[in-house]
Protein 1
Amino acid sequence: MAEVKLRALVLREVDFGDWDRYLTVLAEDGRKVEILCKNARRGKKTNPAARQLCFSEFILAERGEKYALREADLVHSFFVLAEDIERYALACYLCELTSALSDPGLESPALCRLLLTALLALERKKRDPALVKAAFELRVMAESGYAPDLTSCGVCGEVIENPPVCFSVRAGTAADAKCAGRVGGYAQLVDSTLRAMLHALTAEPNKVYAFALSGPAREQFCGMAEEYVKYHLGREFESLRFYRSLQMPMK
């Protein structure tokens, strides 16, 4: 039985049997790994480093591409997010989305960096959570092969040199106003929305969330990012539904 060491963020935990627990973790290299934690819920066997929203150093026993936990040492926990139910729900959604886009056999270090910096931004409360969410959605989709094309017109293929610029969530492309009006299905972007999209798609991972947006541009940017995820992945997310339920006005 081989021994494997890795640093990873715990995306999800699921209790199994009477005492065991399965962890889904995102390794630093972007691989998704499933870990069996034997007796994780039995008295002194509980390890706080092997819980959801913990970035930890793991020592695993590997047998036939299956992993069992031997040790876990905490590097950083995001437990403080649980003190704010909306931020915690958002963090769970970001983890669920990342899990959906990651793969056991595919390395993508950017996924881990993007998620860790997003969780840090939520933890430090210096960024608008809605903008963190939208920027993460666009960038993580781009890093996973679903990048929108904002550089040229998706209809005529020419470089878009002058505003206004339009965008189609379904096509994943931009278009100039003339072409957009001719084919339909495109929405005109507010100038600052376009700048925010370009920033989210091209900035260094630790600077993706370093911007501000307000008014109609903020609403458009956040709405388009969420719809882009839903349409191109063709699925809903339970954690996103819960997050949205927390934002509904009380009757």
Protein 2
Amino acid sequence: MTPMVVAVVLGSALLHALWNALAHTAKDRLAAITLIATAAGLTCAAALPFLPAPNRAVWPYIAASTLLEALYSFGLVLAYKLGEFGRMYPIARGTSPLVVALVATFVVGQPMSGFEAVGIGVVSAGLLALALSNGLPTRKDLPAVLAAVGTGLAIASYTVVDGVAVRRAGTVLGYSCWIFLLQSVIVLCVTAAIRRRAFVPSLRVDTARGLGGGVISLTAYTLVLWAQTKGNLAAVATLRETSILIGAAIGALVLHEGFGRMRIAASAGVVLGILLIAH
């Protein structure tokens, strides 16, 4: 993987952790996720007339990715509602890399180099250690953990779908914008059905935070899509999850959720894995 691709993915990871922290710290997380989706959708609606349309062959992938992204959004809301950010974020994001690596290698047909394979293993182990740094989950934690793991599986699914499709789309920006636009429609409709009369008033809380998060979210994932056209799918997906390191730092420094020796050691392992992947 070239240094340029590594830099782009790590930049995307930073942006991704920022918008997740914005969503987690919002007073109303469902409203925040809805505003994030709305801002991204409106941005894409304004841009699409000036962008080439994706090739017709990838529209089924766009439909599948849109549904998976919507599931991911609501799964994230549930996980953040049930558990703390510093733990749910690593579990949700850390579930994805190994699943993507296995599917990319044995289904998609993108073999990894030896360094990439070892690096993915080291990063995944570090992410798991971050998720478990406060001890094994108790029975009380089970609903939150299940929500986070389910969210992680949705992440792995849309990552593979998009990793295959974006190479065939003929346009990264066009592909990305259609997914975010369609996803915003689904999220708006579902939230409106849940909130009913409280729908519009709920969007007046933390409006600036949500709208800003939407632009950050769109930028972060579009960068990843570009990287997926240049690098190995599993390696890109794993590097992207280094956003967990930033999320853990935000959880400790901003949300005062603690860091500790275990998280420091796990973070060092993740950095080592990144160096191996980027070798």
